[in-house]
Amino acid sequence: MTVAPWPAQSGNRRRQHVVIVGSGFGGLTAAQSLKNVDVDVTLIAKTTSHLFQPLLYQVATGILSEGEIAPSTRLVLRDQDNVRVVLGEVEDVNLAAKTVTSKLMTMETVTPFDSVIVAAGAQQSYFGNDHFAMFAPGMKTIDDALELRGRILGAFEAAEVSTDEAERRRRLTFVVVGAGPTGVELAGQIAELAQRTLVGAFRTINPSDCRVILLDAAPAVLPPMGPKLGKKVQASLEELGVEVQLNAMVSEVDYQGLTVKEKDGTERRIESACKVWSAGVQGNPLGKLIADQVDGVEVDRAGRVVVEPDLTVKGHPYAFVIGDLMFVKGVPGMAQGAIQGAKYVTKLIKESLEGRDDPANRKPFKYFDKGSMATVSRFDAVVKVGRIEFGGFIAWLMWLALHLVYLVGFKNRFSTLLTWLITFSSHSRGQMAITSQMVYARLAMHQLQAKQGELAAVEEAERAERAEDSA
Ligand SMILES: Cc1cc2nc3c(=O)[nH]c(=O)nc-3n(C[C@H](O)[C@H](O)[C@H](O)COP(=O)(O)OP(=O)(O)OC[C@H]3O[C@@H](n4cnc5c(N)ncnc54)[C@H](O)[C@@H]3O)c2cc1C
């Protein structure tokens, strides 16, 4: 099925059609920046919501609900008449034919474009060990966060009924792999959950006896924030009871636990029921699909498209790749990189409509570093803006304020602020429900897909046999 440029709003005159892939920071900002611009916009994404990834760890640890950090994209853009939101997984971006092909269940949609902005983000990288994912989910999507909440809270429940001491210890050992901001935040929150929220709620176990281990192959915590803040964060985590293990590379992950290789080559085991992977990211596969279409365009080691200085794919002045999927030296995979990239490319599109854009003489994209921050626990965060580095309560207040500002929607901001007030001033957390679906759905889907694959193979073999018999 082909979708004509949508919709012909200005009588018979066909307006320029901009197709945006992704509803994350890059995609949503691009769509909003084209408000009141004389173009039709189709935003295609495989999820129905705009996800605020920096707060996923709070969904995983029972503080926020998924709705608070992932408003419906369709509702956010409801009043922007020139945008149509399409749910579907993009399978092809054809630069020569200028079409984007997406699929929703068995329905295929081919959407033509004049300009395309690909903001499909990144996914978890297991550095070639994809089988780790089954036992150590990452934290990139709402599904991931809810599954983790199920696994974390489920581990305490299993420990409560376990009568075997070794198994109880295994259930009460949480391992977070990767000491970047996500790993630090998650490890800190699991420790706080055990020590504050769950205290006194079990009869056989003492939740605060649990081990929370933060592992990294690197020699430091939060390397991009520099040694001073890294050491400060490590000390705060250790004060919370988190065991920080550095220079420790994970070489195997299985149901029972994981194997760690030390710097000297020796290996050791950690028996742990609940493992989380926050160690690496990899560009969305659409990046390679795009790069493979043009001679001389490559993806870097992390699968990000090496774009031109104006964020275009070489030779295609109106095909842009932005956000976590683009590689531009000095631009980190952070929300600001995606937001600023989206504003830059939509400005070029606006200029082209006014006849002011000369693709051969565009000013290159320039990233403005607004700094970075990470929170360790209640009342404790670190901030780095240029050469200014500090941590503690003021940093934590800044962290709260900034995250509120960037959350989409007044209602979400208000309810998140209220939830934080209650959570941080008491022991309670409002999102402690878990369901079997959270814990088992991914496994069940995996098994279903494998079964479907087997069935298809049997059917194919039978078909071949029948064809041979009739020949
Ligand atoms: C746990 C976590 C914590 C983070 N914390 C911070 C932080 O504190 N500060 C900070 O600045 N940054 C943080 N980041 C990074 C930040 O979230 C990203 O840099 C930012 O989201 C990148 O925006 P993007 O638009 O490129 O991609 P994303 O926001 O990832 O959006 C990608 C979009 O593409 C869609 N998509 C993907 N594939 C397809 C497909 N085939 N078809 C259709 N749609 C598709 C997805 O559904 C999604 O809508 C964090 C990231 C994570 C995962």
Textual characterization of the structure:
- There is one protein chain.
- The chain has 471 residues and is of the alpha/beta class.
- It folds into three domains: 2-46 and 88-124 and 282-361, FAD/NAD(P)-binding domain (3-Layer(bba) Sandwich), CATH 3.50.50.60; 130-279, FAD/NAD(P)-binding domain, CATH 3.50.50; 436-470, no CATH class.
- Helices cover 36% and strands 23% of the residues.
- The protein contains 13 helices and 23 strands.
- The chain has helices spanning 25-33, 56-60, 66-69, 73-76, 142-161, 165-171, 181-197, 226-239, 286-291, 335-353, 393-406, 410-425, 436-470, and strands at 16-21, 39-45, 83-87, 89-94, 99-104, 107-112, 115-118, 122-124, 173-177, 211-215, 242-245, 249-253, 257-261, 267-271, 274-277, 281-283, 305-306, 312-313, 316-321, 326-327, 372-377, 380-385, 388-392.
- α5 runs antiparallel to α6 (165-171).
- Flavin-adenine dinucleotide (FAD) binds at residues 21-27, 44-47, 53-54, 56, 89-90, 119-121, 139-140, 181-182, 284, 286, 323-325, 333-336, 338.
- Belongs to the NADH dehydrogenase family.
- Pfam families: Pyr_redox_2.
- It is a single-pass membrane protein.
The portion of residues assigned to helices is 25-40%
CATH class value of the largest domain? Alpha Beta
Distance between the termini: 36 Å
Judging by the overall fold, what is the CATH architecture of the largest domain?
3-Layer(bba) Sandwich
Q: Specify the CATH homologous superfamily of the largest domain.
A: FAD/NAD(P)-binding domain
Instruction: Compute the number of strand runs.
Output: 23
Which strand order does the major sheet show?
A: 3-2-1-7-19-18
Please indicate the percent range of residues in DSSP E strands (runs of 2 or more): 15-25%
The overall number of domains is 3
Shape label: globular
Overall average residue pLDDT: 94
Oligomer: single chain
The set of bound ligands, ions and cofactors reads:
flavin-adenine dinucleotide
- Pairing-aware structural class of the strands and helices? alpha/beta
Using only CA atoms, what is the Rg? 24 Å
Largest sheet: 6 strands, mixed
**CATH-derived topology of the largest domain:** FAD/NAD(P)-binding domain
Number of helices: 13
Domain FAD/NAD(P)-binding: 17-341
GO molecular function: NADH dehydrogenase (quinone) (non-electrogenic) activity
Protein name: NADH:ubiquinone reductase (non-electrogenic)
Catalytic activity: a quinone + NADH + H(+) = a quinol + NAD(+); a menaquinone + NADH + H(+) = a menaquinol + NAD(+)
